[in-house]
Amino acid sequence: DGGITQSPKYLFRKEGQNVTLSCEQNLNHDAMYWYRQDPGQGLRLIYYSQIVNDFQKGDIAEGYSVSREKKESFPLTVTSAQKNPTAFYLCASSKQGSTNEKLFFGSGTQLSVL
Amino acid sequence: GQQLNQSPQSMFIQEGEDVSMNCTSSSIFNTWLWYKQEPGEGPVLLIALYKAGELTSNGRLTAQFGITRKDSFLNISASIPSDVGIYFCAGRNTGTASKLTFGTGTRLQVTL
């Protein structure tokens, strides 16, 4: 089935540790995104990539890093510089160049600090 | 970053009742999307709107793109227990490439 796969579903981070969240899509979408969701709040954009080997900072990029070496993969690293990493992280993708562009989401990764 | 004003923040309704929620923005949008999110899952796209005044239905759900292009509305008719979740609006304007701005969500609870 076509879709967006995020892993792991739950992740725990120790103090000073970097952790990487995986996002893979087989929809042949050009653009991929990472959002952070805190309880009772909307989605905030961390990073996005419109093409392989290129990515842009979103509204809350500090403490995070990404790479886009392959069209289907867009991993997010939560670095030790992110002091409040506990949140629900959502990966999304879209097919660019269409006037009817829609965003499709994965099922999310819950990150917690030990 | 900008966030849309979405209201109400939460709703508690009885099964069978109709539901209305809306989003307003200070900016003009050319796309409005409505999503539903269930606990521990990613948002699922319900309805997409691309033209001012457009009215689109998806089963018991109906959404409208406001004439001013600064607002959108979602209605759910004859609610059922599986309608429970958080409903998000999202908007995009021509100046922001692919970036969507999300509302803060409306949490819907349905009682029997």
Quick structural summary:
Chain A is mainly beta and 114 residues long. Helix content of chain A is 0%, strand content 49%.
List how many beta strands of chain B DSSP finds.
11
How would you describe the oligomerization state of the chains in this entry?
heterodimer
By DSSP (H or I, 4+ residues per run), the number of helices of chain B equals: 0
Helical amount among residues of chain A, as a percent range? under 10%
* Largest Cβ-defined interface: A-B, 30 and 26 residues
Unreliable runs of chain A, pLDDT <50, ≥5 residues?
A: none
| Mean pLDDT figure of chain A | 92
Sum up the overall morphology of chain A in one term. globular
Residue-averaged pLDDT of chain B = 92
Which runs of chain B of at least 5 residues are low in confidence (pLDDT < 50)? none
According to DSSP, the number of beta strands of chain A is 11
Q: How many helical elements of chain A? A: 0
User: How do the SSEs of chain B run, as a string of H and E?
Assistant: EEEEEEEEEEE
Approximately what portion of the residues of chain B adopt beta-strand conformation? over 45%
Strand content of chain A: over 45%
Q: How would you classify the helix and strand content of chain B by structural class? A: mainly beta
Main sheet of chain B, how many strands, which sense, barrel? 6 strands, mixed
